[in-house]
Design a protein that fits this description.
Strand 6 and strand 7 form a beta hairpin. The two termini are 30 Å apart. The chain contains 4 helices and 19 strands. A 16-stranded antiparallel barrel has the order 1-2-3-4-5-6-7-9-10-11-12-15-16-17-18-19. The protein is globular and about 55 Å long. Helices cover 8% and strands 57% of the residues. The protein has a single domain, classed as Porin, CATH 2.40.160.10. By secondary structure, it is mainly beta.
């Protein structure tokens, strides 16, 4: 009997061992492209994370007097499975109810071709802008709040991975569908999506990236575009949306730089076409329907060879939302430092400031109209163990 249980324990241990890398963004983010396929035996692994979070919102008088708050952030599980050329990937988040509760971030069934290309169907990442993020921070940049960074939707995607040229093409049927029009339930999702009276449907997206590698430099120069529909189920009318981006990513030794510029248009059918409702994590807010966006991020990493501290990385990010209709712009500035400890624990310490930003002291309509026109800031620290 002891031998039987010992053998079972050995098998379970082997299933959990893997060599997948984690992104230094606000997520578990196992790199799905590293999944091992073309094996005659099924492969299976489970990863995950547990995170706690401290924040002090200086614009919140009550929280400021309390000296901030410290609480549970999330518990997440990432499941990978593969057999021959097929693979399965699922990333589930378990969060407090106030943040949306249990929700998937990403999940799909995929197939690897002989030339290295792959195909995914399910909840897949939209091929737009710098991937996976234009950010190095835990909080992510202004593009996330607009629904253009860390964006996952229900559909299918083909990804060509050439030596110099990399391109992706996708069809997204809709955002992460909860099969309801209840506004209290539709914003319980990880990616920011159009909500309210409108629904994102039938989007075509594509991206082309040219890669240059030298002894010390790595460059990715790309362009992205997307076009889709907005269905207003109250008016029973169809609107449209589109976005076009130019983006650049450079790595030089320990320095990384990401930059992108894009313009977008939402053309909803409804009472007011100057804004759309967008939401995620159980929070819905207004976003101007037409704007230009500029975002720049930089990071400098210092590796260590110690037994405990493996890396310290300093990063700074800026985002600008230039609104149409003569509305005041939105600004977002993040400065922070990342500590990587024991190759599994990531701690982000950030000072985030915003001007006309709904997550930073502003009203729910700050990304559409202007309000108090002041800078607001918060200090936060996210501590996570990734296994």
């Amino acid at each position: 009997m002891q031998y039987k249980y010992g053998k079972m324990l050995l098998v379970l241990t082997l299933l959990f061992i893997n060599n997948f890398g984690y992104s230094q963004a606000a997520a578990i983010d196992v790199k799905a492209d590293t999944l091992i396929t073309d094996s005659e035996k099924p492969r299976f692994s489970i990863n995950g994370a547990f995170r706690v979070h401290y924040k002090n919102e200086f614009y919140n008088e009550t929280r400021r007097k309390e000296g901030g708050e410290f609480g549970f952030d999330l518990f997440g599980l990432v499941v990978n499975a593969s057999y021959k050329k097929f693979k399965v990937f699922a990333d589930m988040r378990f969060m407090p109810a106030v943040s949306g509760g249990t929700m998937p971030k990403e999940g799909w069934i995929g197939y690897d071709f002989e030339n290295g290309d792959d195909f995914q169907v399910g909840l897949v990442q939209s091929p737009f802008g710098n991937l996976d993020y234009n950010s190095y921070s835990w909080f992510l940049g202004i593009g996330y709040a607009l629904g253009f960074e860390g964006k996952y939707s229900m559909g299918a995607k083909y990804h060509h991975k050439g030596k110099n040229w990399d391109w992706q093409a996708a069809f997204m049927k809709n955002a992460m569908e909860t099969f309801t029009n209840d506004p209290d339930l539709r914003d319980n999702q990880w990616s920011a999506s159009v909500l309210g009276d409108n629904k994102e449907i039938n989007q075509v997206a594509a991206q082309l990236v040219y890669k240059i590698k030298t002894h010390n430099f790595s460059h990715k120069i790309g362009a992205s575009g997307q076009f889709g529909q907005l269905y207003n189920f109250v008016e029973n009318k169809m609107g449209s949306r589109n976005a076009f981006a130019l983006h650049y990513h450079m790595d030089y030794k320990n320095l990384g730089i990401k930059a992108e510029v894009y313009k977008y248009e939402f053309n909803p059918k409804g009472a007011n076409s100057e804004y759309v409702d967008i939401g995620s994590f159980n929070y819905t807010y207004r976003v101007v329907s037409k704007a230009n966006v500029y975002a720049l991020s930089a990071q400098y990493s210092i590796p260590f060879k110690g037994k405990s501290l493996n890396e310290i990385a300093f990063y700074s990010e800026y985002g600008y939302l230039g609104k149409k209709y003569n509305l005041n712009a939105t600004h977002m500035l993040t400065n922070g430092v990342l500590f990587r400890i024991l190759d599994g624990m990531y701690t982000y310490v950030e000072y985030v400031a915003g001007y006309n930003h709904p997550f930073l002291g502003g009203s729910q309509g700050s990304l559409y109209n202007e309000f108090d026109n002041k800078w607001h800031a918060r200090l936060q620290c996210n501590i996570g163990y990734y296994f």
